[in-house]
Amino acid sequence: MMAAGIRSPVAEEKTSRSQTEAAHRRLKYASLAVLVVQNASLILSIRYVRTLPGDRFFTTSAVVMAEILKLLTCVVIILLQKRLNVKDTVYFLVDSIVFQYKDTLKLAVPSLIYTLQNNLQYVAISNLPAATFQVTYQLKILTTALFSVMMLRKTLSRVQWVSLLLLFAGVAIVQVDQERKKEEQASSVEGSSQNYTVGLLAVVVSCLSSGFAGVYFEKILKGSSASVWMRNVQLGIFGTVLGMLGLWWNDGDAVAESGFLFGYTGAVWCVIFNQAFGGLLVAVVVKYADNILKGFATSFSIVVSTVVSVYLLGFHVDLLFTLGAGLVIGAVYMYSLPKAAASSSVAAASSSVSLASPRTEGDAEMEAFLPKAQGGVASPAAAVLATD
């Protein structure tokens, strides 16, 4: 007989497994909570710093600074993976970036698009209410889905197609409501530096670029064994160079006269850190949380942005906006449902005995591998739900 004080290996293994699952569960909900705060706070903070009176910082310099911070963060993570061995880390970076230059050059295209997208985000939020931007920006789900079908030959479930229609309808209702408000206030409001048309155009172009870059980046990752952190280093290098070119083109003379950090305050630095590390946060969320909970987090962040906008930014919510935002939140949740779960729901509703095909292990690994886009992007069913 086994001594009473000695535990069997099987019992120890079960205890260890249960402790690991409990730790992952705590990390899952903690990361989801952080994601909600990050999604809502980024939009609100950009809106806040861009509408403050006084000297305005250069958005092009903020984009460059965010790329630099993201690049340094990924290098530090790789250094930690190499057990703080600087020699091995340098050799790994040089080999991955320089000697495999053909592989590195593939990241030039999405990096150019991300740089454009980050600049457009500042333009859009500077000209639109935070809640309106947050709702309209969910159109990136639609653009990513369309590019996935065209470029990756992916198929969407009936639930996902319905969710895309609801998404389009919800955004359309919100935009009609905002256009009506703009016309009503046009005669009574003094001249403003905000331009609704410019903001809306910036959102649409940003959604298109986000969809294309996300699918393009996924296509690259599927044929590569490079880690997500290495890919973000490559993206960061191109992003920094392209961002500097954009800064020189748009604000070169002004930056030369006033300085790179002109207009930077504590609030501006908070926005930059938020934008730089927000994309890296999604990699953790997708790894430890499923798409359903991630959809809830994104939807809840829209609600948080709207509520805070009402109390702090003077945003007025009416019936049309509530209806449109509700359709968008529902569409985000429906689209984020895994295909197996969505197909099973449709089958149950129609009393069908056929079951949806289960997701493969490769698909699950890919969703856990891909990050989001201000710093990286996720697969169409996951990363488009985050707010890069």
Determine the strand fraction and express it as a percent band.
under 5%
- What does the overall shape look like? globular
Which residues sit in consecutive blocks of at least 5 with pLDDT less than 50? 187-191, 344-388
H/E element string? HHHHHHHHHHHHHHH
Gyration radius, in Å: 23 Å
The first-to-last residue Cα distance is: 60 Å
Mean pLDDT: 74
Tally of discrete structural domains: 1
Largest sheet, in brief, is: none
> Helix count, per DSSP?
15
Share of residues in helices: over 70%
SS-based class: mainly alpha
* Number of beta-strand segments: 0
What does this structure look like?
The chain has 15 helices and no strands. By secondary structure, the chain is an all-alpha fold. The chain has one domain (37-186, 197-385). The longest helix has 42 residues, at 9-50. The model is unreliable at 187-191 and 344-388 (pLDDT under 50).
Summarize the structure.
The chain has 388 residues and is mostly helical. 75% of the residues lie in helices and 0% in strands.
Keywords:
single chain; 388 residues; mainly alpha; 0% strand; disordered C terminus
